[in-house]
Write a structure and sequence with these properties.
The protein is an alpha/beta fold. Helix content is 47%, strand content 13%. Strands 1, 2, 3, 4, 5, 6, 7, 8 and 9 form a nine-stranded mixed beta sheet that branches.
Length: 468
């Protein structure tokens, strides 16, 4: 493979798995005895740090503690509206002005959108605009206010694709990388997902001299440096990483940067490494790839950054991939809200039911992230992660839900594969890692699945599947 010589990314630090299974890492951590990647803060980053130090510390006191369970307030809303045959919008708005709960307004808006009642939806949006002034530019807004605004914008985009405000600008790469670094260093989400998935792969390939992983959603490739460090530590092992893409989701710039960083890191570890990619157009492409494989492969996919439509396409892609390539192991990282094979699949729920569940899920996500971002910069960290990662995901899920057909059952997606037990080492590592953060975090173990929880509510899970 051609070696690409570029400077390493100043925003993505690549820690070793062994050194950091139990301790949070910083950008200055030594990666390997023969290689250290330092974070080179640019002028812009120094300005950002100065900005962070002077920001108002307003996050903790601003939580609204809204309860999505009080939906009963609006059970009689439809009857009131149906009685107004003239569709008097002013009268509708006057009634809504008497309600104070953001949760109730959002759920009423979801009901109106599902029913196609544009008059009621417009009244709800008008009331929400009055309760949520100046968001997202209002730095003093509480976390729940900001969360509610993202759900409101998702509803707007769902009922009217022509809405200008609900269209999200393309995030700046530097801002998104900064948000990802915050998630990696200050919360257990990325570490839990990647360490648990990587340990499952290490357990399945113990004794192998060649490890071939097929990544169905590599993104920036941040999962693999710690895995590569483990392989290099054992010695005598080569690593082949193949990235699968489709025409719809291929981003050449991101994949090129991932290849560059990983190749340079492998070189620093003296790890034999091959990076390749192929784009799937049909089953014939899979058959051709299968013939080129010299040994067993392992499937890995982190769906927590996937847009809603891409996740549905993954469920359509997986059966063919599994049937033709017959991987030795399938490891999937998922958000609990939309995980593959969920017993009560969201794809069979009404939009209002999904909206209600999503509101609970992301409220819990916000609360758990807020517990991680302590110190004087907590408000800024939270807003950056919200703006670049969580907020766009909320708007995407709410706006796109039901726009594509999603297969519901795991047997249909992973036919002839069954849940594979996670090793005791893997479970112990996850529990020790989570224990470093707020005690509200915990892990729940099911057969073949380990979930990261906040106050007993699962948020992210890693599932492992093997042929049966």
């Amino acid at each position: 493979m051609e070696t690409m010589s570029y400077p390493c990314s100043p925003l993505l630090s690549f820690p070793t798995h062994e050194e950091n299974s139990f301790f949070p890492w910083s950008p200055q951590v030594a990666l390997h005895e023969n290689a250290t990647i330092q974070v080179d803060h640019s002028t812009d980053q120094q300005q950002d740090n100065e900005f962070l130090d002077t920001m108002d510390q307003d996050y903790v006191g601003g939580w609204h503690h809204q309860d999505a369970s009080d939906v009963g307030v609006f059970l009689d809303c439809d009857e009131r509206i149906l009685g107004q045959e003239s569709g008097n919008l002013a009268a509708i708005q006057e009634e809504l002005m008497e309600e104070n709960s953001l949760t109730d307004l959002l759920l009423t808006g979801a009901e109106a959108v599902e029913a196609g009642d544009s008059a009621l939806a417009s009244a709800v949006f008008s009331r929400l605009d009055g309760l949520l002034p100046g968001i997202p530019d209002n730095a003093s807004a509480s976390s729940f206010d900001r969360l509610a605004d993202h759900f409101a914008q998702g509803l707007r985009s769902r009922i009217s694709s022509a809405s200008v405000r609900c269209s999200l600008p393309e995030p700046l790469p530097s801002d998104r990388m900064s948000a990802q670094q915050i998630i990696q260093e200050l919360s257990p989400f990325a570490k839990f997902a990647h360490f648990t998935a990587n340990q499952a792969i290490l357990d399945a390939t113990k004794g192998d001299t060649d490890v071939h992983v097929v990544d169905l959603n590599i993104g920036e490739g941040i999962q693999w440096p710690s895995f590569m460090s483990d392989l290099a530590r054992h010695g005598g092992i080569s690593f082949h990483l193949t990235v699968v893409t489709t025409d719809a989701d291929y981003r050449g710039d991101i994949h090129h940067e991932s290849a560059r960083r990983l190749s340079e890191f492998a070189h620093s570890l003296n790890l034999p490494f091959q990076y390749s990619s192929f784009c799937i157009h049909s089953d014939e492409d899979l058959h051709a790839f299968s013939k080129s494989c010299k040994g067993p492969v392992i499937f890995s996919c982190d769906t927590t950054s996937m847009p809603y439509k891409s996740m549905s396409k993954l469920q359509a892609l997986l059966p063919a991939c599994v049937k033709i390539l017959r991987p030795k192991l399938v490891v999937i990282v998922e958000e609990e809200l939309v995980r593959i094979g969920k017993e009560a699949s969201v794809c069979n729920a009404s939009f209002v039911d999904f909206f209600f569940e999503a509101l609970h899920h992301f409220t819990t996500v916000f609360e758990s992230l807020g517990s991680c971002f302590g110190g004087g910069n907590q408000g800024v960290c939270m807003r950056l992660v919200e703006r670049e990662m969580v907020g766009p995901r909320i708007q995407d899920f709410v706006g796109q839900y039901g726009s594509v057909t999603v297969e519901a059952s795991t047997p249909g997606v992973l036919e002839r594969y069954g849940a594979c037990e996670l090793s005791g080492c893997n479970v112990a590592q996850a529990r020790m890692l989570v224990g470093l953060f707020n005690r509200g975090f915990g892990v729940v173990l099911e057969k073949g699945r380990l979930a990261l929880c906040w106050k007993s509510r699962p948020l992210t899970s890693v599932s492992v599947w093997a042929p049966i």
